[in-house]
Give the backbone structure.
Amino acid sequence: MTTDPQQAGAPGSHFVLEARGAAAGYGDKTILHALDLAIRPGELYALLGANGAGKTTTLSLFLGFVAPAAGQVRVNGVDPAAQPAEARRYLAYIPENVALYEHLTARENVAYLLELAGQRESRAAIGAALGTAGLDAAAHDRRVAGFSKGMRQKVAIALASMRRVPALLLDEPTSGLDPQATAEFNRLLEQLRAQGTGILMVTHDLLSAADVADRIGFLDGGRLREEVGASGAERFDVRALHRRYGGQAA
Ligand code: ATP
């Protein structure tokens, strides 16, 4: 597959992230059972579930760290288990704690990480992306050692937006963020969606998911129990979802 990663969504492909009947586990222990998940360009899907439900394992499938024992997994049409490097060209992954080069500045981190992805951008363009991601100009040329979780996420979002990847994976992005930083982060996701990026966010944060997601999936014991789509002005009936899943997902 030779699709240009700068094009959000492969031509002819409806889904940027797709799992069909995917089973996966570790050793002979099956964790995910017949997972069906499909995310379109510009869509934000929040996957909720209790500790151990299999959320991180789902991300690992798309990253090519875990191969499906059955079924199919595709990133922009590419099988990440068979072609991990190719699949990752179409992906950005923001782990719970963003890893950056501590001795480099925010701007240098983005420049270096873009270069590793084979992309060169001007100093000004990187500054603009950091600014759009909400990082104060004064922080652009500061070493990232000492940056807060929210600031690190902004650097990662700036990088993802410059790579213009079709798919973004987020692992617990709002855990440990205060309400203002959470709201700010959720606004950044809107910008990426506007670029056509399809987003899979795994989270325990039902409120945040209800704020930003088009669909919320509830994973329980490695099985997708239910999917709920946003509708109307209220989008989701958060209280009903909380009553139903609060014990395991919020
Ligand atoms: P959490 O919310 O706690 O991060 P999760 O929903 O992300 O949970 P996973 O991390 O996917 O859940 O774990 C699902 C199950 O797989 C758990 O029982 C866990 O112990 C097991 N598991 C995860 N990683 C491995 C591994 N590398 N080797 C063996 N078992 C693993």
